[in-house]
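Problem 3 from the worked examples.
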Amino acid sequence: MHFAKSLLKTGFFLGGLALGAGIFAFLIYKTGAGEIWRSLVAFGLLPLVGFISISLANFVLYCVRWKLILDAMLPVGKRVSLPKLFLSRMSGFAAGYLTPGAQVAGEPIRVALLHDDGVPVKEATSSVVLDLAFEVTAFIVYVAAGLGFAFANGFGSGPGLYWSVLFISVLLVFMVGFFVATITGNGFFHHLLRATRLSRFKSVAVFERWLIETELLMSEFFIGKTLRILCVIALSLIMATFKAVEAIFIAHFFGVDLPVTDALLMSTLPGVSLLLPVPGGLGVFEGSNTALFELLHLPINPVAYTMIIRLRDFFFISIGVAYAVWRGEALFSRKYGHRS
């Protein structure tokens, strides 16, 4: 059973990767490798460094939000420093980017690194789940705003947009249900587990009890912490809208002064592809940008534009993988070094 499950996951991963790589290769062929290269050279190295710097500043805000959530669950002596959270989140970003499910795949890495830093598993899991919930909800609201602008500007006739609306609506209902259940203290995930009727098995029943206790920790976060919650919400919205700033920055150095409405569309609609089970949205992200750029009549090479974002992501991934490997080697040495 375990082998079949692993085989299914591997097949799912390779299938998504092959699909994305095929789309990516087709877009390069259609656009022309030479034209893409000329666009990248025209963009320049200094603007690329500037773009990465802007993204790093935004990434720090992500870590500040995570720290606000985590610190509310821990005594002062157990709190983890912001630099450690920054590197742990980079490792989570790398894991999520390189596997299907960019928004969730890296979270177990974050929990594991927190636990290695001395944070109990329940508190680590609660903080990561809440951080992810605020992030996904802000992203959904931001994408919904982009879809609203798309329909308002006459881009709502394609079936792709209608499927995007349906997809985002389902996600929004799910997240609203999660927050309502968590804030009221009823819990969310253990009810889903009970619906499977697996709790009759002893091992699952033990996990369910652990899950209920973890959900109670998440519920306690919303008790008497109004200012902290408002800060978390504000940070979530700021970081979501930061994507429009990045779009304006990149477009400027491609020689286009982008209107705010176009920046909103460029930073939301293609982002739906990152929720699909394709590693890094490879090919699908490029294809979404190509279609949108044609609709907006933007004189920017869409593949070159996306490659600027990919170069930033590669920089982040390099930091995340290096830190994860270093922490893994240190953990292995602590556990087994005395045996050698």
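Problem 4, a separate protein:
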Amino acid sequence: MLIKKMALTVLIITVTGCANTDALEGSVSSLNQKVDMLTNKVDALTDEVASIKNQQNKSNKAIEDVKSSVDSANERMNNIAASYKK
């Protein structure tokens, strides 16, 4: 009797396992699609961040150039003002 119950239990587990395989494959497929979508989004964001960093570097260079020009102009103005004081 015990052997019949164990055999029946094994049979039920085997059938149940086979029945869940299709659902499991569908779930894995769905997860793979989601991972692919997220990978594409990460790649797009990485490209966008690289572009923003490039723009920021250009802006920083332009700001440094403007500061240098302002410093030169201030020095010229100070020299002109000093020449009037003499």
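Solution to problem 4. The chain has a mean pLDDT of 86. The chain is about 100% helix and 0% strand.
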